[in-house]
Design a protein that fits this description.
Blueprint (H helix, E strand, L loop, with lengths): L7 H4 L5 H4 L6 E2 L11 H12 L10 H14 L8 E4 L2 H12 L5 E4 L6 H7 L5 E4 L10 H11 L3 E5 L11 H14 L2 E5 L3 H4 L6 H4 L5 E5 L2 H4 L7 E4 L2 H4 L12 H13 L1 H25 L13 E5 L8 H9 L1 E2 L1 E2 L10 E5 L4 H16 L1
Parallel strand pairs: 1-10, 3-4, 3-5, 5-6, 6-7
Antiparallel strand pairs: 2-8, 7-8, 9-12, 11-12
Length: 371
């Protein structure tokens, strides 16, 4: 079984952001969307629901139970499914958490470079102030700087990306425990986006496994790991005293088909996920080798988490490398400045794709330099 083997001609018939946002001659390797066919158990579950006209409102806590089962199997993390509630998707869950645990004028802490919706959710419609504590040059949490920011700015909420997007860093247990100690000291609610956790595998530690008694919430989903963004459903996991503060309508936005699809993925799609994870690791190694072969000025060290590569293009001497790759090479990556103002020289590359597409993407990068 090979996951990332969908022909380019077939991919170009898709109507999603990845394949329709830019000009037809541009090779898209930006948004975190896999070039894969849906896992068979997920497809079969949705087809069954359609055959049976099972298209109403959700009732049973099957998604909560499935994530608890997956967590016990993958991370030896055991939580009560009753400690999880539905939400439409991870980004809306982050925004709801900011609105729930902060007031207008409060501060929200993030760690750039970071997935752009962290800043959007943190501002909550421009009513909150975002405090940015960048990662270290080595791509780790800057714990001393964070503690200083907690003491000085007294943020109401800290939005943590775990595993980190775009860098792929997997936070250690010690780092997660240090965050919890700081948050407890300064009364900060920690909201952890763990959407890339399943495909990262055993290297990941759930925040609430590292800190079982923390006043914190995990917001997660099967969408990134099984490519289910079109079928929305996510979970907010954490103590009842935090969950009960959310408005009662928050859970109503989760799609019933999303619940069915994500449940099937978590319970029956584990072989598919293991294969996808292996291919991602192989693609990262291949990307590193091929990038150095075609563009010796650049290097990439495979990250532990996600299926994304964060590439420093500063050796090329381009003012806006992402824009040049698009305009000249006709390949589209995510621009580094979208993740933080100090990351203009970076691009984020989606490696959940075939070797042919990865090779062609690098060829188009190289073409930019000789045009």
């Amino acid at each position: 079984m090979t996951i990332f083997n969908v022909p380019l001609d077939e991919l170009r018939t898709r109507g999603t952001i990845k394949w329709q946002r830019f000009e037809p001659d541009v090779l898209p390797m930006f948004v975190a969307e896999m070039d894969a066919h849906i896992a068979a158990p997920v497809r079969e579950r949705l087809e069954r629901a359609l055959r049976e006209s099972d298209t109403g409102y959700p009732q049973l806590p099957v998604y909560q139970e499935a994530y608890a089962d997956f967590s016990a199997h993958e991370w030896d993390w055991h939580f009560d499914p009753a400690d999880a509630m539905l939400v439409a998707d991870v980004v809306s869950g982050m925004r709801e958490a900011v609105l729930t645990f902060s007031e207008p004028g409060d501060k929200v802490l993030i760690n750039p470079p970071v997935y752009p919706p962290f800043g959007i959710a943190g501002h909550a419609g421009e009513s909150r102030e975002v405090v940015s504590i960048p990662l270290t040059e080595g791509g780790r949490l800057d714990l001393p700087a964070m503690e200083q920011a907690f003491a000085e700015h007294r943020p109401a909420v800290y939005l943590l990306c775990s595993p980190h997007n775009p860098t792929g860093a997997v936070h250690t247990v010690d780092e997660l425990r240090a965050v919890a100690d700081m948050a407890d000291t300064y009364g900060v609610t920690v909201v952890v986006n763990e959407i890339h956790a399943p495909i990262t595998g055993p290297k990941h530690t759930p925040y609430l496994k590292a800190n079982p008694d923390a006043q914190a919430l995990i917001i997660t989903s099967a969408s990134k790991s099984w490519n289910l963004a079109a079928i929305k459903a996510a979970l907010i996991i954490g103590p009842a005293e935090l969950r009960r503060q959310f408005p009662p309508m928050v859970s109503d936005a989760a799609s019933y088909f999303g619940i069915l699809a994500h449940t099937a993925a978590l319970l029956e799609g584990r072989d598919w996920l293991r294969q996808a994870s292996r291919e991602v690791a192989e693609n990262k190694a291949f990307f590193a080798e091929e990038l150095h072969r075609q563009i010796p000025q650049l290097s990439y060290t495979p990250s532990e988490g996600t299926y994304l590569a964060w590439v420093d293009c500063s050796p090329l001497g381009l003012e806006l490398p992402g824009r040049d790759f698009h305009d000249v090479g006709r390949v589209r990556f995510s621009f580094g400045q979208e993740f933080g103002p100090d990351s203009v020289q970076f691009v984020r590359v989606n490696l959940a794709s075939s070797r042919e597409i990865i090779t062609e993407g690098i060829r188009r990068m190289a073409k930019t330099l000789v045009s």
